[in-house]
């Protein structure tokens, strides 16, 4: 290049690099920052062949979406009905889904491809639920349907995302390992609809499961069913409603067991026991001083052995005198345990219910309380005359008794070392600050109950606003008034169990025996209890 040229070689090189970087930078696609999160599942733009095609003879189906998609657990989620020996192959390619049919299709047959929750978008993982593609190899499509609602049998609440499926009567395989190919999930109101069904007799089920594999696992899942087969002929079946329930386990099992880091032994059962009993069978000499606490429903237990010198220990579990199972626990000779005495209470937002005793609940059995290290302050002044006594029904609970006064602030102090627990464990300082709740915050509800048949038995239950906790329960078989005295203000509901077998408890269903749960009815009124107010209501139980 001549000496008088406008640019040198180096300048031209630098200019080229700069322009290339600029062009590449402009061409780089970046995800926009900020803005609302995408909560919309992929939308179908086009299907080839079209959905609901008759006289279908293609080998591949291509579905186009409005955004990039991916497949999630397609081997578990996807199904085709009728089933094929060689299932279709699914491939996600950018915004397209390709379905390749490997097996031949039967003549004059309607096929339903159900994708379950297999299709999601790439960025946010939004699921396209209950998407189906329907085709017919003949001139017409199967067009019958079954629809209804799924509710919880105990609370009556609609079940969201429950799986509803049917089996042809001759292929009912609920207790097998075969997944249903005709299924759908319920919407936010518990509604479902199964479409494009052919004539026939079916068994129908609803499943609320944890594994998501559409196979009923009695241990963990809830189930609903209709005993009588559904017959689909010339018209659709509407209002086919199901109620799901948790079956009682047929055979006793220990679901979980462990030797905890404080030396206690805990076990969880798959049944609620009636009169449980635990016995240390090996080594038998440490059985005498063991301490046992079952929970209120007798389906879990905690055990403390005062002698931890064993290498292994065997514990026999009995109910009503009958041996159910024996469990072994093993510890290492060098195992060490960490124990700290802690205390919870029954205060309600630092307020003591004036109609209940003040209770402390410890995490370890207590051997001794040094009352000289326990102080009760009333308006900052130390007081005497209070007592701390063990509860008769729970070895971990203690009642604190005193003549509590309104508007006074109380501080209960358990100084360091005041409490001696099992294994000579001492507490660090425990401090509880509270006031006596006002009696004006509580009200009374009188419920005049009218039964339809005095020869039958009913269980009256008062439940909380969410209907998931029983506040009160009583068996009745005649007209009577039930008084709920001094209850904290709140919203409650009356629930009636039609106690068919008169055993005083609500009995759940049994699929194998075709038994539905005992019927439950909720009173039509919301029974709100107002503070410092007496309410009277009539509850007329309808006939079953």
UniProtKB/TrEMBL annotation:
Instruction: Spell out the InterPro entries in the cross-references.
Output: Carb-bd-like_fold, SbsA_Ig
Q: Which residues cross the membrane?
A: 12-30
| UniProt entry keywords in alphabetical sequence | Membrane, Signal, Transmembrane, Transmembrane helix
Q: Which Pfam families match?
A: Big_5 (PF13205)
Q: Write down the PROSITE patterns for this protein, in alphabetical order.
A: PROKAR_LIPOPROTEIN
Q: Locate the SbsA Ig-like domain: which residues?
A: 38-133
- Which Gene3D superfamilies did the record assign? Carboxypeptidase-like, regulatory domain
Q: Which SUPFAM superfamilies match?
A: Starch-binding domain-like (SSF49452)
Official protein name in the record: Ig-like domain-containing protein
